[in-house]
């Protein structure tokens, strides 16, 4: 009884902070749908993609059941769920947040090198990095890295430490796919480094060098999907280094060389670079 009371107390406190919350099972999954909602025969909930409202008072439909309403959280319909609950989860997107779920030490090392410092919460195997802002919530955007924001849930692991930073373009770039068809051009595309002029976020000259080297390595080691890998690496480099003026033509040449060594044509490199710049509004 003490554990259930503790989870419910935590849920009510989070709800007061504006975080939609829900109970989780022992396996970290959401509570199963009730009989009336099984296989979404009820039509789902209004904020899900399935049509129609759901009148069910139980915590069905996973993240869509998350709520900040204390009357719902303490209602008889939720009582059985809290008795079974092993943890509390919250809907990051519903609270205007994005969680970058880092599942191992390599993923944490990547984040420390390429993502801005933000609020950090230790997890079972790694860390949750929490940013202000929302986005889609794909898993496995890179080895050991999942995104939890809209239409997703994250386990509550404590308040963490640090100040939440705005969601960076580097994280958004992880889920951007290259356009299926490159923009046509009747003449050769001349690619040069952006003029810059923005504030430089680099901690040292080595920061840019490490970014270029990692992008080269990711391109060189891509086993397949080279078109998408090249575009995503160009997008990642531009999102971090494209506005401050530190990126040079020599850096771009290194990236193009790595791509061409994997069989990419110069034309495709130019189109991928132009598309990445356009996606970032450059």
User: What is Rg?
Assistant: 22 Å
The H/E string reads: HEHHEEHEEEEEHHHHH
- What characterizes the major β-sheet? 5 strands, mixed
- Output the structural class: alpha+beta
The rounded distance between the terminal residues' Cα atoms is 57 Å
Q: What is the number of beta strands?
A: 8
- The helix count comes to 9
What best-fitting shape do the alpha-carbon axes yield? elongated
Strand content: 5-15%
Give the mean pLDDT: 83
Low-confidence stretches: 180-189
Helical residues, percent: 25-40%
Describe the structure.
With about 280 residues, this protein is an alpha+beta fold. About 35% of the residues lie in helices and about 10% in strands. The protein contains 9 helices and 8 strands. It has helices at about 1-15, 70-75, 75-85, 105-115, 170-175, 205-220, 225-240, 250-260, 265-280; strands at about 20-25, 85-90, 95-100, 120, 125-130, 145-150, 155, 165. The strands form 2 sheets. Strands 3, 4, 5, 6 and 8 form a 5-stranded mixed β-sheet that branches. Strands 1-2-7 form a 3-stranded antiparallel β-sheet. The model is unreliable at about 180-190 (pLDDT under 50).
Put the structure in a nutshell.
Helices cover 37% and strands 11% of the residues. By secondary structure, the chain is of the alpha+beta class. Helix 6 (205-221) packs antiparallel against helix 7 (226-241) and helix 7 (226-241) crosses helix 9 (266-279).
Q: How do the helices and strands line up, and which of them pair or pack?
A:
Layout: H1 2-16, E1 21-24, H2 70-73, H3 76-84, E2 87-90, E3 97-102, H4 105-114, E4 119-122, E5 127-132, E6 145-148, E7 154-155, E8 165-166, H5 169-173, H6 205-221, H7 226-241, H8 249-261, H9 266-279
Parallel strand pairs: 5-8
Antiparallel strand pairs: 1-2, 2-7, 3-5, 3-6, 4-5
Helix pairs in contact: 6-7, 6-8, 7-9
